[in-house]
Design a protein that fits this description.
- The structure is a single chain.
- The protein is of the alpha/beta class.
- The chain has one domain (3-244): 3-Layer(aba) Sandwich (Rossmann fold).
- Helix content is 42%, strand content 19%.
- The chain is built from eleven helices and nine strands.
- Strands 3-2-1-6-7-9-8 form a seven-stranded mixed sheet, sandwiched between helices. It has a two-stranded antiparallel sheet with strand order 4-5.
- Helix 2 (18-31) runs parallel beside helix 3 (45-57) and helix 5 runs parallel beside helix 6.
- It binds S-adenosylmethionine.
């Protein structure tokens, strides 16, 4: 499976764009992790992009969502299987919330009151709310190896702008300030950047990359390479492809 083949196969499926997917893939190719975690997969588009790197480097992905995500068409299993990437991903269905699955992972990896970190990277792209992802950050920190990275998506997103959430009573009853404040940005400013174990931050568009402190120089990332622009030839081929698919 090549980058261009995956782009074509995922065309039009929400949520991660082809451009962001390639960046995610490039990041992992540079990081060379052994095990990574994703919170929130929905159709599994970002999962497929990460699994493309896993196919080349042979690392393992745990990805968690709720049962509802399997109603998304095509679902994560269909997308992974279509692209031959299913063997790199453990799809974990949490009955209510990944917060409880994180509890299970911490419990499973704890001995004599100490949790052994197991992940080199975590993509947090689920609830985007203060109480869920603020807590998820502290739980993921316990499972993240020194030098490991977290990527937060949608740092400027607000609950007020969500059409799909507007129908719920918990949103209708929410104070205006909470609705209009980007929760992930608050998590970054008030929790992550004040945390003693995080020392490296990079905000790029709607994404925030944060690194857990380590004495080793390992796991430093060449972001120039990760964010490289496509070659003129590839940009032209993408343009032709978009015309063919009536996207332009
Ligand atoms: C934006 S979508 C994920 C998109 C995916 N990462 C991608 O880019 O292709 C967010 C997902 O998070 C899931 N989610 C939100 N809150 C959750 C929670 N507390 N526990 C489990 N899953 C949750 C939703 O069910 C939804 O499928």
């Amino acid at each position: 499976m090549t980058i261009d083949e995956l782009k074509n196969n995922l065309l039009g499926i929400p949520h991660t764009s082809a451009e962001d997917g390639e960046i995610l893939h490039n990041f992992l190719m540079d990081l060379k992790p052994s095990k990574i975690l994703e919170l929130g997969f929905d159709h599994g588009v970002s999962t497929c992009w990460m699994a493309l790197a896993a196919q080349k480097l042979e690392f393992e992905i745990d990805s968690i969502d709720r049962p509802d995500a399997l109603n998304s068409k095509p679902d994560i299993y269909q997308n992974l299987t279509k692209n031959g990437l299913e063997k790199f991903v453990n799809v974990i269905i949490s009955e209510r919330t990944y917060i409880w699955e994180l509890r299970n992972l911490i419990s499973k990896n704890s001995t004599n009151g100490v949790c052994k970190p197991i992940y080199d990277f975590c993509f947090i792209d689920g609830a985007h709310t203060w109480e869920t992802d603020g807590f998820a950050f502290f739980l993921v920190e316990k499972l993240l190896k020194p030098g490991g990275w977290i990527l937060f998506d949608d740092i400027n997103w607000t609950i007020a702008e969500s059409k799909s959430l507007a129908q719920f009573d918990w949103v209708k009853d929410m104070p205006k300030e909470e609705k209009n404040t980007p929760h992930v940005k608050e998590i970054l400013e008030l929790l992550v950047s004040q945390h003693p174990n995080f020392d490296n931050f990079r905000i790029q568009g709607k994404w925030a990359w944060v690194k857990k402190t380590s004495n080793s120089k390992l796991n430093s990332i060449n972001f120039e390479k990760v964010y490289k622009k496509p070659s003129i030839k590839n940009a032209f081929l993408n343009f032709l492809y978009a015309i063919k698919k009536n996207l332009i």
